[in-house]
From TrEMBL:
Gene it is expressed from: hflX
Annotated binding of Mg(2+), by residue: S207, T234
Known cofactor(s): Mg(2+)
Main location per the UniProt record: cytoplasm
Keywords, alphabetical: Cytoplasm, GTP-binding, Magnesium, Metal-binding, Nucleotide-binding
Localization per Swiss-Prot or TrEMBL: Cytoplasm
Species name: Holdemania massiliensis
Protein's name in the database: GTPase HflX
């Protein structure tokens, strides 16, 4: 789908919160290569079991979709299998929900074998409950007797078993990759280098910060990571060796960004990737200081860390995009700009203190020669 209508049912959100959800969903669509032609919302007390929104709103949605020549509809809300089936039939268009949209983005971004396996496992986990509901609805539509329903249930169970086996096989492959990562992790630990992990809301500037640190004290060309002004630009985790000062070096890992209401099956699928967070000596939470919703995004990050059971880890707030804000009164973090380099020296000094590396920060004879040979060695990632 290249052009879509964005739709949703507003139940508990106030007007401002709903607009935020719509705007973020539109950004997700853009990240997926979809153009939002129109937005259709309905305010209600509860969801309609057949179509999420009422029949009148479905008719309006169809009319708008035809007028805008949209190829599909994206719902902000989660849709059940029955709702997906009914909406697709009544609108005569492709219909997906927010989780399926995120999966589509992840599938486009996946580069490594691990990321592709994780996305496939998540896709099947998303599909499984919707397959159940969709098949039940299809059997009821056939209206057959006990014999037909029994045959339908048999086909349903067969489909469920097939998907469940595929999920188990994918998890087994991911487990093997996780074991390989554990070996790499032990090697990094033996190197004695501190491990720092970049976390934060999607599109806050994590990859940009890694690239800025890679080049800040660069003597030789470095391997940078992909960075783009869009949600989920980073999917595959990458680790780089970063020189801070003198002989003080760290291993810095970039990870997938968080968003509001991230489905459990997506978080579970990326457990091995998020292992980088659990093993870190320090978490750098990158926050987009120019975003009016940064406090809400910070809370989403905190909730995700709570789900990952890593709230106890040492964490440093890094407020990015200082070049886009006029004043910044906060004193509980470091204000930086990856574009201009503002605040990077202050950030490095804070890292040296937090990681107890100040004794290694003083330049020694031969450092420049050694740096030419080994500076910013690529530890991991494609």
């Amino acid at each position: 789908m290249k052009s879509i209508v964005l739709a949703g049912l507003r139940i508990q959100e106030n007007e401002a919160e709903w607009e935020q959800k719509l705007s973020e969903a539109a950004m997700l669509c853009k990240a997926c290569g979809m153009e939002v032609k129109a937005r259709v919302s309905q305010k209600g007390q509860k969801t309609h079991p057949r179509t999420l929104i009422g029949s009148g709103k479905v008719a309006e949605l169809k009319q708008i979709s035809v007028a805008e020549q949209a190829e599909g509809v994206v719902f902000i809300n989660e849709l059940s299998g029955i709702q997906l089936r009914n909406l697709s039939q009544e609108l005569a268009l492709s219909v997906i929900d927010r989780s399926a949209l995120i999966l589509e983005i992840f599938e486009q971004r996946a580069r490594t074998r691990q990321a592709r396996l994780q996305v496939e496992a998540a896709r099947l986990a998303y599909q499984l409950p919707r397959l159940v509901l969709g098949q039940i609805h299809a059997d009821q539509q056939q209206g057959g007797g006990v014999r037909n329903r029994g045959a339908g249930e048999t086909r349903l169970e067969r489909s469920r078993r097939t998907i469940e086996k595929q999920i188990r096989d994918l998890h087994a492959q991911l487990k093997q990759l996780q074991l390989q990562q554990s070996v790499q992790s032990r090697k990094r630990r033996r190197s004695g280098l501190k491990q720092v992990c970049l976390i934060g809301y999607s599109n806050a500037g994590k990859s940009s910060l890694m690239n800025a640190l890679l080049t800040f004290r660069s003597i030789s060309p470095t391997k940078q990571v992909d960075a783009a002004d869009q949600l989920f630009a980073t999917l595959d985790s990458a680790t780089r060796r970063i020189k801070l000062a003198g002989r003080a070096e760290i291993l810095l890992s970039d990870t997938v960004g968080f968003v509001r209401d991230l489905p459990d099956f997506l978080l579970d699928a990326f457990e091995s990737t998020l292992q980088e967070i659990q093993e870190a000596d320090l978490l750098l939470e990158v926050i987009d200081a120019s975003d009016p919703q940064w406090e809400f995004q910070h809370e989403v990050v905190m909730q995700t860390l709570r789900r990952l059971q890593v709230l106890q880890l040492d964490r440093l707030l890094v407020f990015n995009k200082a070049d886009r804000v006029e004043q910044w009164p906060r004193k509980d973090g470091i204000l930086i700009s990856c574009q201009t380099g503002q605040g990077l020296e202050e950030l490095i000094q804070e890292l040296l203190l937090r990681l107890d590396l100040t004794s290694l920060a003083k330049p020694e004879i031969g450092d420049e020669f050694l740096s030419e040979l080994s500076y910013n060695e690529d530890e991991r990632g494609e």
